[in-house]
Amino acid sequence: MNTALWIVAGLLATVFTIAGLNKLILSQETLAKAPGGGWVLDFSPRFLKILGTLEILGAAGLILPAVLGIAPILVPLAAVGIAAIMLGAAIVIYRRGEYAHLLINIIYLSLATFVAVGRLGPEPFII
């Protein structure tokens, strides 16, 4: 179980680092051209930068506290934050009627929930 939690946390950290960097680096228009990216036009560029920053912080929070042995309780809290972001994303995509892209949000939400529950409960950190 510990190995599975590490793998999922690593996968989520990678995905959210890339997604966050894209939101910080790319323009809103460029993001909107990506498949499933039309939602960015519903939000301000400032919101996208804040969201990108939160995604990067969440990604770091999934890995660094446990690896460094400093406040590992931050890992499940970061997973809860990532899950909250993905719940919001799923709601936005659902309201836009873009059901084909909804599944990926639900998968990431499920993976973040798995990490949060696993690290809060049955499998605290073993490095």
UniProtKB/TrEMBL annotation:
Alphabetically list the UniProt keywords: Membrane, Transmembrane, Transmembrane helix
Question: One Pfam family from the UniProt entry?
Answer: DoxX_2
- Its name, as the record gives it, is DoxX-like protein
This protein's species is Actinoplanes lutulentus
- Main localization is membrane
Cellular component terms (Gene Ontology): membrane
User: Is the Membrane keyword given for this protein?
Assistant: yes
Where are the bilayer-spanning segments?
Answer: 6-26, 47-67, 73-94, 101-121
Which membrane topology describes this protein?
Multi-pass membrane protein
Where in or outside the cell? Membrane
